[in-house]
Design goal:
Layout lengths: L7 E4 L17 H14 L3 E4 L1 E2 L6 E2 L2 H5 L2 H7 L3 E4 L9 H11 L3 E5 L3 E2 L4 H5 L6 H8 L5 E2 L3 H11 L5 E6 L2 H12 L7 E7 L9 H15 L3 E7 L4 H10 L3 E4 L6 E3 L2 E2 L3 H14 L7 H8 L10
Parallel strand pairs: 1-2, 1-12, 2-5, 5-6, 6-9, 9-10, 10-11, 11-12
Antiparallel strand pairs: 3-4, 7-8, 13-14
Helix pairs in contact: 1-3, 1-11, 4-7, 8-9, 10-11
The structure holds (5S)-5-amino-3-OXO-hexanoic acid (KMH) and zinc ion.
The site of zinc ion has 8 residues, from loops.
């Protein structure tokens, strides 16, 4: 059987890394837009987007900060826009879904369980901070709980349902797959669903390839074959996990949100550089990458003409 084409998602900027950690991390609307457009030109068919305050690079869930770059990305690319509902670790679920409610994108993230979600070890490796909030935000992440209760998931799913948005179900551990199955059984999500298997977040399942096989088998057992899947390895696991996933018939996610590096101890120059690297690997290993319209078909998306930006 022919291998399905590989969808490359690029996550442009996120809530873990701070401006001090890499000059390449975009946080102004101009830089987010231009890096997103370049990532799409390099082969990313899905753009997973967070917003940041342009003044100090801190995470923003204010829909107006998304408004500063979404139309530009739409005008310049055919890529699928996927808006994060992750927020920063301090936002309520209502705040977190506000951008997706306003802009009605083709996709948005849906985090499938509450967990520790910590990046405090990064604070030990950095001594120079550009903005006041950065050091405390990173070092205090060992006190945070990333809250995604069943009630939160249900509230988000119910409010977003009229928009026909396909969720990127972010699963950081095997229990999250069982949460997802439960939510499907009570009718919150309809097949085909799209799962992002996540490895290497402190608080979630570790970045061992055995765990990828284990998560995939659990998903097969719980969900049959009516789901699409992708893999995100955090930090140093990014390229090895994406490569393995593509060889297993899965899709891949790269981007500076999840790793600032292009190779061991070498910072990436841009999101597009990571997309070009995984694209080269996928193609050299004999697979093809999906165009945005092919991704739309594979994921049963509503279409780029049905968004509100
Ligand atoms: N950076 C990922 C590990 C979201 O946007 O909803 C988490 C994430 C969450 O992408
Ligand atoms: Zn994200």
């Amino acid at each position: 059987m022919a291998r399905p084409k590989t969808i490359i998602t690029c996550a442009i900027t996120g809530a873990i890394h701070t401006p001090t950690m890499s000059d390449a991390l975009p946080y102004t609307a101009d830089d987010i837009a231009s890096q997103a457009i370049a990532a799409a030109e390099a082969g990313a068919s899905v753009l997973h987007l967070h917003a940041r305050n342009p003044g100090d690079g801190s995470v923003s869930i204010d829909p107006d900060t998304f408004a500063a770059f979404l139309p530009r990305i739409k005008q310049a690319t055919n890529a699928v826009v996927n808006i994060s509902t992750g927020g920063s670790l301090k936002n309520t679920i209502e705040e977190r879904i506000a951008p997706a409610l306003r802009f009605s994108p083709e996709m948005c993230s849906m985090n499938m369980g509450s967990m520790n979600f910590s990046f405090h070890p990064l604070a030990k490796r950095h001594t120079e901070w550009k903005f006041d909030w950065e050091k405390d935000y990173v070092s205090n992440s060992d006190t945070y709980i990333f809250r995604n209760t069943f009630a939160d998931i249900e509230r988000a799913a119910t409010q977003l349902a009229p928009h026909g948005i396909k969720f990127e179900h972010e699963c950081y551990d095997v229990g999250h797959l069982y949460n997802l199955k439960f939510c499907m059984d009570i009718g919150l999500f309809k097949a085909p669903i799209f799962i992002q298997f996540i490895f290497g977040i402190l608080g979630g399942i570790g970045p061992d390839i055995d765990n990828l096989i284990f998560m995939k088998r659990a998903a097969d057992r719980l969900l049959g074959d009516d789901y699409r899947w992708s893999v995100l390895g955090a930090g140093a696991a990014q390229m090895p996990f994406a490569t393995t996933a593509s060889q297993m018939g899965g899709n891949v996610r790269v981007g500076l949100e999840d790793s600032l590096f292009i190779s061991r101890a070498k910072l990436a120059e841009s999101n597009a550089q990571q997309v070009m690297k995984i694209r080269r690997i996928v193609e050299e290993l004999g697979s093809e990458i999906a165009s945005p319209d092919e991704a739309r078909e594979l994921l049963a998306l509503k279409g780029g003409d049905r968004v509100a930006f």
